[in-house]
Amino acid sequence: MELRQLRYFMAVAEELSFVRAAKRVGISQPPLSRQIANLEAEIGTTLFNRNKHGVTITEAGTALHQELREILPRLEGAIKTTQRAAKGQVGTLALGFGGSAVYTFTPALLRHFRRNFPDVELSLRNVPVTSQLDALLDQRIDIGFIILPVDNDAIATRVLLRDKLTVALPSGHPLTRQKTISVNELSGSDFLVFPRSRNFGFYNKVIDLCTHAGFMPNIVQDISPLESQIGLVAAGVGVAIVPSVAQKFRLTEVEFRPLRERTAYVEFAMAWRKSNTSPAVRAFIEVVSKVKIQERQ
Fold first, then answer.
1. pTM for the complete prediction?
2. 3-class secondary structure, 241
């Protein structure tokens, strides 16, 4: 039994004419008659009485018509929903939502996606940037927003934003008298850093910058998230090399100065599991990749 046979049956039952029903469904009369005959043979009963005076529906046909009036719209709706799900137009998408990405590019990305796919439910999970790669690998989220690099063959990434690094300094620090700072000028400072993690490489970025400048930083505290790090800078505990998006935290006790080094930048990226075949994930990647995000200098 095919769905089209049921549609043909409904047309004949409501028109009580094979000619009018054929016009309604867009086929000629002979194929319509054959399909109804095949349906009757499959069900094992006559659905219509045919004679020279016209067509009447049998009691069995009436019963089928009453059932299909409720069932067929739901079935057709289910088919449409399935087709939309296959295109990523419906479903649920779990996104990592936390850290500096919240204050920069993710709101614009989410607005753009929701405009294009309003029926996809976005489940925003409060996961710090430092933990989003772990959340991806544990399948707690479908899409994460991370800082590159990522050294894991199971994860695919796409760069969204290059962000210059800046130094967060306590107010009154001698280096606040300068408009820009070289990393080697920080050699005598106490450092606040993100915790060292296999799945979050920002710690290594800071260490690399310092070693290339000829010193190892004196780390007095490793701390996450970013706002906590900036809070300790305000308290005078130390200085911190951070993405320039940290300037969103406007504290009177903290001043920011850009680094002069050309390599002093990080790249924010969208990340997902290569094994995730969800159409909603594919749709998100495709739509978000078209959004223009201004690089921060």
1. 0.64
2. strand
